[in-house]
Structures are given as C-alpha cells and as structure tokens.
C-alpha cells in the first residue's frame, strides 16, 4: 500500500460484511483512511459504496467486521455514538431542514471544538469560516434552505456536517445528480478542505472528479474490494478502470 506508514490512521475497517435482510451485500471489505488524506471509494451503481458508509456509521441492521475510529472500537456502536466521536457523514440523500434558514441549518450541526490525541487543537469551524469556503451560502444566510437549488442544498449539508468539527468526513457521491458547475464547486471545496488538513472518505463513480481530488482509491465491485492504490496508479491502469469503473 502506498500510504506513508508514519501517517496516523483515523479510520480502519477490516473484514466488513453487511446484509439487507437475507441479501448479503458486502464481502470482507477492508479499508483505511489516514489523517489528512482524501480517499475515494469507487465503483459503479450498486457496487456497495453507500452500504459501506452506512455500515461505518452503524446504520445497518446487520453487519459484522472490525471497525475502529480514532482508536475507539466502533463495531456495534450506535450511529449517534459514532458521530459523537467526530466522524462526519453526508449521506446520499442530503437532508436539509427546509423550513430553517441557511444559517439555522448550520447551527443544527454545531458541536464542541475537539483536540487530537496529542493535545493539539483540531480545526474548529465557525459559520464565518464556512461562508468563506462556500461564498454562495454566505450571500444567502437568511434564505430558507428549501428555496435553494439542489447544488446549494448539497453545500448546506456539507457545511452543517463541518460545524460538528469532524476529524474525518464521509461524503457519499458528492458529484452525483448536481449540475456540472456544482461538480466544479464541489471539487474546489474538497481541495480547499484538504489544504486545511481535513480528512475525507468520498464515494464516487465519476473518475475525472475523483482523480482531481483524491490521493488514494479503493475500487468496489459486487461488494468486494477489487483494487486499491494511489490515484495516479489507477489512472495509469486502463484495464482496471475499464473493468470496474467506466459505464
Ligand atoms: N435498502 C435496501 N434494501 C435492499 N437492498 C438494498 C438496499 N439499499 C441498497 N441495496 C442493494 O445493495 C447493493 C449495494 O447498494 P449501494 O450500497 O446503494 O450501492 P452504491 O452506493 O455503490 O450504488 C445493491 O445491489 C442495492 O440494490
Ligand atoms: Mg450510493
């Protein structure tokens, strides 16, 4: 694996299996995300990306495997307990509070500032800092979220998650179903977060988007990890991309 061994591991998943009812969906999925990394979990529709994220967040009724986050064993914890440890999650369906204003939506996500285990302060977000990252939202702080475009609502869910000062953010398909201009804004936003040291695990099927923002990649097919490596290695490997990623 290409990740520097000196890097602190934030999230580690080993031998994850998950089921919807009797349907076995994930088969021995293992992955890691280190501090400061942007890692892409890639795969076509139905590969198991969202199921992996739900399992990591404790949202699957039935799953097994060993999961740890920030040194805590999170296997079997409740979703709110996992979130409280500082794992942020932006689900696929991007729920906003449509009757609340943009500013109020951000307040809903507010959690106390955090420290890293070595005692140094973790990045602590304020609405002002988030409006710098998302200038669009800053200009519309007083607007009801329900009146905003799909892309803007997507930005609100990311900003609200950051208000929880997460050590790591799971972003489920940030580029899906939004206009090309918003995809560009999303890429800029992720690169901006990366520059500030935010760690991100994102799921994607959009190869150019993932290439732009990610350091490393895992490729899922039919609930199994088929490939892992640096983004540059994946881009140099036409056969893997053809087999598991292009439509
Ligand atoms: N709520 C559900 N109930 C039953 N099967 C589901 C449910 N959600 C997803 N699946 C199935 O699980 C598999 C993986 O889905 P998913 O994790 O959503 O894939 P991806 O996010 O990569 O598109 C697919 O075969 C999908 O049909
Ligand atoms: Mg999905």
Q: What would you report as the Rg, rounded to the nearest angstrom?
A: 17 Å
Oligomer: single chain
What is the CATH C-level name?
Alpha Beta
Distance between the first and last residues' Cα: 27 Å
For the largest sheet, list the strands in their spatial order.
Answer: 6-7-8-3-9-10
Care to count the β-strands? 10
CATH architecture field = 3-Layer(aba) Sandwich
Proportion of strand residues: 25-35%
Mean pLDDT: 94
List ligands, each type once: adenosine-5'-diphosphate, magnesium ion
Count of DSSP H/I helices: 10
How much helicity do the residues have? 25-40%
Largest β sheet strand count, sense and barrel closure: 6 strands, mixed
Shape: globular
Question: Which blocks of ≥5 consecutive residues have pLDDT under 50?
Answer: none
CATH superfamily: P-loop containing nucleotide triphosphate hydrolases
Number of domains: 1
Q: Structural class given helices, strands, pairing?
A: alpha/beta
* CATH topological fold name: Rossmann fold
SSE order: EEEHEEHEHHHHEHEHEEHH
């Amino acid at each position: 694996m290409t990740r520097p061994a000196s890097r602190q591991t934030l999230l580690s998943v080993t031998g994850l299996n998950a089921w919807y009812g009797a349907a076995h969906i994930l088969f021995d999925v293992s992955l890691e995300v280190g501090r400061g990394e942007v890692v892409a979990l890639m795969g076509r529709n139905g590969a198991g990306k969202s199921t992996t994220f739900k399992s990591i967040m404790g949202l699957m009724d039935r799953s097994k495997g060993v999961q740890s986050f920030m040194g805590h064993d999170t296997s079997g914890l409740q979703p709110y307990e996992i979130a409280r440890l500082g794992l942020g999650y932006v689900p696929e369906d991007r729920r906003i509070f449509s009757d609340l204003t943009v500013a109020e939506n951000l307040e809903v996500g507010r959690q106390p500032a955090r420290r890293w285990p070595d005692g140094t302060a973790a990045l602590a977000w304020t609405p002002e800092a988030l409006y710098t990252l998302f200038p669009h939202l800053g200009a519309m702080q007083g607007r009801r979220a329900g009146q905003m475009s799909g892309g803007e609502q997507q930005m609100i869910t990311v900003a609200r998650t950051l208000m929880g000062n997460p050590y790591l953010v799971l972003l489920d398909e940030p580029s899906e179903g939004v206009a090309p201009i918003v995809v560009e804004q999303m890429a800029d936003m992720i690169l901006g977060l990366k520059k500030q040291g935010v760690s991100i695990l994102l799921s994607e099927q959009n190869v150019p988007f993932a290439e732009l923002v990610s350091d490393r990649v895992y490729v899922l097919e039919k609930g199994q990890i088929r490939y892992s490596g640096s983004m540059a290695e994946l881009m140099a490997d036409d056969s893997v991309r053809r087999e598991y990623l292009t439509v």
